[in-house]
């Protein structure tokens, strides 16, 4: 596929192996200078090919983390918090940097700034719009819980959840929803407008919202809620 753009960025999720990147111009026989920058999630050996198409040494396959290396609880929440927090608080950008640098995503998706604002709001019991150490510790445990739920629900192991796998995950978390409701939620929170799916980084804020709404509902009778407009606005809008 060719584009007329002067600069472009592409993201790919590839299985371990040997791949060749071949830049070319739109017009045949046209010479041009270019800059190719390649970023890898794991340690990878990248080598140029000579004019005969041979590389000068054997590339090493990417190192895939083990389950132990992927376990976020292996890193102490207090140490992480102190490394990124300022004045004993995490704002949304600091939380985003912490998560994207320390949480194993398994896909090219990062935690967005909006998702991190949402995570702070969902844990913000003091309404300070920042996260303290106790709130972060609780969040870190929830992240680990939902990561395990994601992995157990990802039956085809493609690192995304379709709507059937999402319904399975919700059911395992004690949230029995109709197919119609799951369709609506998938449309609202999907990572793609073309093929509905949820990545791990989208699934975690989604489950945090669902968990929060379920707790509020159960705390207020279980069948019918009795909240003031201000209380409901905090639940409905500030998340």
Automatic annotation (TrEMBL):
One of its GO terms (cellular component) is cytoplasm. The keyword Transcription does not apply. InterPro entries: Calpain_domain_III, Calpain_III_sf, EF-hand-dom_pair, EF_Hand_1_Ca_BS, EF_hand_dom. Keywords: Calcium, Cytoplasm, Hydrolase, Membrane, Metal-binding, Protease, Repeat, Thiol protease. This is Calpain-1 catalytic subunit. GO terms for biological process: proteolysis. It comes from the Eukaryota. Gene3D superfamilies: 2.60.120.380, EF-hand (1.10.238.10). Residues 141-176 form the EF-hand domain. Residues 50-72 are annotated as: Disordered. Its main location: cytoplasm. It is found in: Cytoplasm; Endomembrane system. Signal peptide: none annotated. It comes from Takifugu flavidus. GO terms for molecular function: calcium ion binding; cysteine-type peptidase activity.
């Amino acid at each position: 596929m060719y584009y007329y753009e002067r600069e472009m960025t592409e993201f790919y999720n590839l299985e371990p192996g040997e791949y060749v990147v071949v830049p070319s111009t739109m017009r045949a026989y046209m010479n041009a200078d270019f800059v190719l920058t390649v970023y890898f999630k794991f340690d990878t050996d990248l080598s140029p090919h000579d004019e005969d198409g041979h590389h000068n040494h054997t590339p090493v396959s990417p190192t895939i983390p083990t389950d132990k290396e992927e376990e976020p609880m292996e890193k102490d929440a207090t140490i992480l918090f102190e490394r990124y927090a300022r004045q004993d608080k995490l704002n949304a950008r600091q939380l985003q940097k912490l998560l994207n640098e320390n949480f194993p995503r398994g896909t090219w998706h990062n935690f967005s700034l909006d998702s991190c604002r949402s995570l702070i709001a969902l844990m913000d019991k003091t309404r300070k719009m920042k996260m303290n150490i106790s709130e972060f510790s609780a969040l870190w445990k929830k992240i680990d819980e939902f990561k395990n739920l994601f992995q157990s629900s990802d039956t085809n192991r493609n690192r995304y959840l379709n709507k059937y796998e999402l319904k399975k995950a919700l059911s395992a978390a004690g949230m029995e929803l109709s197919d119609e409701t799951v369709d609506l939620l998938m449309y609202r929170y999907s990572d793609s407008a073309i093929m509905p799916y949820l990545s791990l980084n989208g699934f975690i804020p989604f489950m945090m919202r669902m968990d929060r709404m379920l707790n509020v509902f159960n705390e207020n009778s279980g069948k019918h809620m009795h909240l003031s407009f201000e209380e409901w606005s905090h639940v409905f809008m500030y998340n």
